[in-house]
């Protein structure tokens, strides 16, 4: 279909197609749109080129930051004893936007996956231990998604943190608020039974 | 939601959101993906910056080209007497991919739209007339989408070409009214070529 496109356009279409969620058709439409906007090409091209040089990981929590220390770690009003472990910056932002948690974070960026070569080093577990000791963290909250790899990663980190004088917690799993029981999947229901809340008696 | 993103990342997300078909959510996902691929940032950034400098319009047919004259205009085996007028490069490619037409093309890039300020100049009608005379074109085939503005543009061009010793045809409406050419199936398009409507001369 693109036989008669100029080589640069073909290269751009193929590069854009390699991005997540962009098929060849939208890559083609985007490329033609860019072609009609030279000013945007200059601006966007520079931004993309500079991105990896400007944005780095916070040296404490590995959140995205344009400075050595991110805005959250700089915020001295937060609860110093709480450290919430999240998979990625998107999850961190989601928790922040809800505004129910006021401690600090640690961003793994990967979940444990021996197959894909993501081990303790990629997850930054060394600097996590360092941070916990340096900050005097008293509770580590595991806030990974309750997926297969999320659960495995939580279990692994909990095991590693066992020797330290810490409380280790994990976000509760169960039926989402507002969902009718008949729509809850079997695994969720099983978790909900296992983790049932004690209301009275013993 | 993006309060805690670094400024460069915010700027990139906002720039990507301005592209057609990309919402803030996919712009955010794309930006984070790019952040994890420094090599791709370098490559893609350069491509986008260079795009408008490398790709231009063929001096004859206004098709996209990286050289002064495009591959189709360079192809001497085509039927010199036929000139097919298309709206844009995507439509040209669609016709080429079906392979039923072996003449040359002329790309308007716009349809007539006084409201949006697209008049004869934007459509390149001067150089169209020049091309027709220089090439000794005998039949001009109007292959614009049978939409309101496509029909208006076809009528306008037919009117302008009236004084010239040419056959003027228009793709037959086997194509459903309102459907854009790039979505028409090969058989429908073939029918449309075969049954092209006779507007003048011949
Ligand atoms: Zn930080
Ligand atoms: Zn050409």
Topology readout:
2 copies of one chain form a homodimer.
Chain A: H1 7-17, H2 24-35, H3 38-54, E1 56-57, E2 64-65, H4 71-74, E3 79-86, H5 89-98, E4 103-107, H6 125-135, E5 139-142, H7 148-161, E6 167-170, H8 186-194
Bound molecules: zinc ion (2 copies).
Pfam family, one (chains A, B): Toprim_4
Keywords (chains A, B): DNA damage, DNA recombination, DNA repair, Metal-binding, Zinc, Zinc-finger
Zinc finger (C4-type) (chains A, B): 58-73
Characterise the protein shown here:
- Two copies of one chain form a homodimer.
- With 202 residues, the first copy, chain A, is α/β, with parallel strands linked by helices.
- Chain A folds into two domains: 7-54, RecR Domain 1 (Helicase, Ruva Protein, domain 3, Orthogonal Bundle), CATH 1.10.8; 77-200, Dna Topoisomerase Vi A Subunit, Chain: A, domain 2.
- Helices cover 44% and strands 12% of the residues of chain A.
- Chain A is built from eight helices and six strands, in the order H-H-H-E-E-H-E-H-E-H-E-H-E-H.
- The first copy, chain A, has helices spanning 7-17, 24-35, 38-54, 71-74, 89-98, 125-135, 148-161, 186-194; strands at 56-57, 64-65, 79-86, 103-107, 139-142, 167-170.
- In chain A, the strands form two sheets. Chain A has a four-stranded parallel beta sheet with strand order 4-3-5-6. Chain A has a two-stranded antiparallel ribbon with strand order 1-2.
- In chain A, helix 1 (7-17) crosses helix 2.
- The longest helix of chain A has 17 residues, at 38-54.
- Chain A starts with 6 loop residues before the first helix and ends in an 8-residue tail after the last helix.
- The mean pLDDT of chain A is 89.
- The interface between A and B is large, with 58 and 59 residues.
- One zinc ion binds next to helix 4 of chain A.
